[in-house]
Queue: 2 jobs
Job 1
Amino acid sequence: MFLGTRRVDALSPYDRGHAYGDGLFETLRAHRGELPWWDAHWARLARGAQRLRLPLPDPAQVRSEASQVLAGLDAVLKLILTRGEGGRGYAPSAQAEPVWTISRHPLPPASPAGGLTLRWCDLPLSEQPALAGLKHCNRLEQVLARAEWDDPAIDEGLLCDASGAVVCATAANVFVLQAGVWRTPPVDRSGVAGVCRQVLMELAEVRVQRLNADDVLGADAVFLCNAVRGILPVARLGERHWAPHPAMAGLRHRLGATHPAFVPSQD
Amino acid sequence: MFLGTRRVDALSPYDRGHAYGDGLFETLRAHRGELPWWDAHWARLARGAQRLRLPLPDPAQVRSEASQVLAGLDAVLKLILTRGEGGRGYAPSAQAEPVWTISRHPLPPASPAGGLTLRWCDLPLSEQPALAGLKHCNRLEQVLARAEWDDPAIDEGLLCDASGAVVCATAANVFVLQAGVWRTPPVDRSGVAGVCRQVLMELAEVRVQRLNADDVLGADAVFLCNAVRGILPVARLGERHWAPHPAMAGLRHRLGATHPAFVPSQD
């Protein structure tokens, strides 16, 4: 944990991260101690910091500390940046030094070989253009949505907004293949602008468009993606089953070509 | 700080309060070391804990620790309850022991004798019925709204939802007098079910109804209220000025009769 550039031993109970979720985070895939998508993660963090008027720590220091924490391993690195101490009251202090923590976590278990099983979440996501797209620390909606099921056969849940537009999964973006073109929902009212989503939009033709539940169910192929796990093909959503699709295999191959961390184990 | 019933010295950087704002809080007025609205605060905390499926600490222990922290003073007591450690990922752990902190803060400065000066905030509040009414720790909207101004002549800002319905101020509920009856907006889609708001609804005839900006500007009297400061008469909102109103004085008097902490200094 760091306060500005100084290492500290403990979080303050007055940290605005703890009091208000007044912060941002990034969850990065580490491959042999390296962070292949560092630049994209830092760029999103910087966009969020600008929107929340949070001072950013020194990226060189964060990277160097991350490298020590990672110790050359394959892992997940989590970075949390909060506004630090701010007394009681919502007004952000202009003087507060930001607090940042980095922590290493094991890679998640491999996803099921046949593809993911999804459900629809009941919770409608709220719409807040001022926060949409950011990976901010106000995540109670995701906590509530993920708490809707504890059946281990269900891998993830899809979330819609109040108008029925599909937004994302609890911890991943969603892509669907319609008429030979990949499509993913906009994230300007809800949802997170995922780093893997962005990488894929640069690798392939992807249309950002509003999708409803029927668009997903009627798609020729569906996948989820995030920066830790890359592309995760979906096999099942309720009664709907999808067979492996060559366009999915092609996209996974192209993603794997960008960095060995994202080479698919098996298609 | 306490983990379950055990006192701990530091917050874990893995606390889900810090990571996701996965918690609840209460801000209580203390008068000579006592907490006049304790029951109402605890009831709201319990409702929130049920909604978020957070285990509650032992109220007797919290009250006894609060009493020691308060040391007989007039002050503000802040209680934060978070889900504790939960690893990485949104799924709440069923085993996690809740973490709670209590802290004492000075009373805020007296409000301006002539009444508050308000502004309209630009940020529209999002609508999330699953969280509305709760005093949860996802407060980035309030942080952003409060950051809209730094003019010390402005005391508070009013917030509307995306449909233009007035919801609340950044840290207070709002009441308006129309045709001799006090009215306050519902808090079932946005906003917090304030403890002072609830006390006033038991003391006087209050109609819960949707209000728009014109309803506020056209009202015969307007006040904000919260559990720390009681009733705060509004003197000004943009070009609109309000003179002191006898109905306001009457209601402040009735609130003051419930407990000496809320006796108005001057009307």
Job 2
Amino acid sequence: MHDHVLRNTMNLVRRAYSSVASKHVQFFQSILPPHAVLSSLPPSNTPPDELAPFNTDWMQKYRGQATTVLKPKTTQQVSAIVRYCAEHTIPIVPQGGNTGLVGGSIPLRDELVVSLANMNSVRSFDPVSGILVADAGCILQSLTDYVAPHNHIMPIDLGAKGSCQIGGNVATNAGGLRLLRYGSLHGSVLGLEVVLPDGTILDQLTSLRKDNTGYDLKQLFIGAEGTLGIITGVSILTPPSPQASTNVILALPHFDNVLPLYKTVKRQLSEILSAFEFIDRTAYELAVKHGQGRALSDEDVAGAECFVLVETSGGRREHDEEKLTDLLTSLLEADKPLINTGVLSQNPAQFSSLWALREGVTEAVSKEGKAYKYDISIPLASFKDVVDATREHLDSKGLLGEHAVKHVLGYGHVGDGNLHLNICAAAYTQEIQDALEPFVYELVASYRGSVSAEHGIGSMKTHALHYSKSATSIAWMKKIKALFDPKGIMNPNKVLE
Amino acid sequence: MHDHVLRNTMNLVRRAYSSVASKHVQFFQSILPPHAVLSSLPPSNTPPDELAPFNTDWMQKYRGQATTVLKPKTTQQVSAIVRYCAEHTIPIVPQGGNTGLVGGSIPLRDELVVSLANMNSVRSFDPVSGILVADAGCILQSLTDYVAPHNHIMPIDLGAKGSCQIGGNVATNAGGLRLLRYGSLHGSVLGLEVVLPDGTILDQLTSLRKDNTGYDLKQLFIGAEGTLGIITGVSILTPPSPQASTNVILALPHFDNVLPLYKTVKRQLSEILSAFEFIDRTAYELAVKHGQGRALSDEDVAGAECFVLVETSGGRREHDEEKLTDLLTSLLEADKPLINTGVLSQNPAQFSSLWALREGVTEAVSKEGKAYKYDISIPLASFKDVVDATREHLDSKGLLGEHAVKHVLGYGHVGDGNLHLNICAAAYTQEIQDALEPFVYELVASYRGSVSAEHGIGSMKTHALHYSKSATSIAWMKKIKALFDPKGIMNPNKVLE
């Protein structure tokens, strides 16, 4: 996979971009305070190791060669930087917490990195409406902490919350663990402040829940991965905190039971259902093998084809527990039970332990071998078919076994239609890579699915965009890109080739 | 207000548009079945009274002079019509249920009307995910009825639900009564099929909950009021039906208590809170005067400055009632109670009666006199200030009293920050109009509010757009319009002047 990505970067069409030079660094020094300009070029001469964190992602999968990183503190500074870059055709990579998975925030060559890290102030919070206005560089966890004393939570939650920034969350339309309950950022983001590729500040930082006055331009920047402008401020609706959460793990004899189970759970738990996560048998066993607790007995697991984790979050613990207990009772006492058994968490430690089983799959796969990971959206009913078809395809190529692919497994967010298809191999090889692609993308396309449910396109999947978007859609994306960024300086060669 | 609108239409800059002529009608007859072409021109010769319903809105406030109405049945037919119109520069007004309030769906002159009424089939519904895919012309109520047996509801609900169409709901980004609970259409619409102004079909009719593959173009058409293309199909997420609903009306001694009350109610009712509606004293008394039930005793009303209607919707009646009863008890037993009293509905008839009191304000205002209505978004804390400032301003102009303005009142959706400011006058006069505008718009702008929270811009408020959107925003809207519709044929002079 690394090789593949590196090959792609070699084939980039080289536009008439300028590299950052000393004279540019001098200009940036004239408009920014000293600590805000990091450059290996004179007169700055920052040591290269200080630039390294901006030139690679947390997975160390992508590497750029940026000589210069700017860390502006204000929107006006961002605007001045971008205006200058537009005049001098200097390409820019906007960078948030650098926690993406698809190489969207790393330079492909020596683009200028504009880090939002120093724009990290809360601008306002209204504890009545729950509307928060914050600089783009605020870290998700710090915003969560900021609103918590006011009995509110952020509408998104991610594993990367300690590092990722709200501006990056919005730019990548981050999904995460709360999407089932609180919906997408297209609904919860109320306003944005964006510096456009010519340096203009587009102020749509409204803190209104309803505003039907013309086109909702801010929506274009949600999920554009910094290719249409730099998000500098975010207005977002934060929901009231739930008062109680609990969870249960259910063992199912057949995958076919997942969908009727989901229907039953939705109906009985209604507004308190906050997660419905699927783990197949292979994923469960890998998680247990690599250190997670065995929630179920040998006997329970023996008859199970897959597992479901259900979480509730609600306003009163005794009501929620009563609903969940009644659900379990009705499931187990049915004439033809949809589940073999279920284990309800009895305390916060068990609650965390059940979640760790689900969340531990990722780590278990890494420990077991080298992972080819696909983050796809497909119809709920086809989750198992896609995993099975991939396994059979690899088998037909003679690639199944300890020598090549050890496991093919599926897990993910049933409630969101989002399957994480993982192929766990002894080693990364071109043969496996070629067997998987375009096979998996074509399989996804045959279900009218998405080749990137939540991770985005970045630089990794630009070649695969056509599997999920029609030629007409891609042509219109390019027109929008050309309209906002005629010189192509803003995060070039990301999202669109 | 009528005069004002008519004046505006007289001032339209006349572009090089073609009027529909007989030769065009002949072409439309060649591609559509006979009943799908209504035209007063030969060879069709439809009687004018059959065209009248397409040339005026339900309020009879706007009147067009369209000679020709087409009622295509398929997306391909819409595409063929639009392609032909683009070639011949014939302006088009897309028309749904014609229930808008701002003249967005009525021709300003003799534009071609393309009615979506015959595109009224459900394309698919997945009872597990709740994802519904439907033709744009499906009536909201019929979709509500369609998903109800599967224990789902539509995420929007409007007074006009018996006539409005889902395509029109999306095109106008309709808000309505469920927004507090289920969020805006920017979150719940998953995909759209749109015929662009050159006739191209943009197929983004995905039924995926998550899809991060490039720019979310469909968002541009949500709230564009048909000026960027004709929505022909909608994919939308429908929530599970709540199992129980109940409501309560609360009398507050002071407006200042509304905000702490909202905070308390949000915290205690959490996920089951589905409406929090505000009615000021004047609005309450008008509703009672004109036939709605008096929910509270004379004594309760005497000490009340305003009223709040709280609705809950949840998964189990006994849990919801317990939460609501506990809320009322804690409110009434507080050391410094935020409310004077509260009346909890005890049965479905009382539930409807409390809602009728809130919803009856609109009708009461119509019965009392001539209404100047403003649908604005402003910070919750300023609701009363805006009503008071408007009243004082009219008083300072000598316009308050039986001879001119009888009442100035406010009601609306506190939870959404959406105030309906109503000025109830003995008659529509230019003097009152001039006293109100631009006064009200400037007042809204001073709070960074929205001059159209949910009704849209249409042809009525194009001149007021700048009170809510910056010059930069409006300039970018115009660039987007020019990109999608370079000939300006799609719903011309709506949204943008």
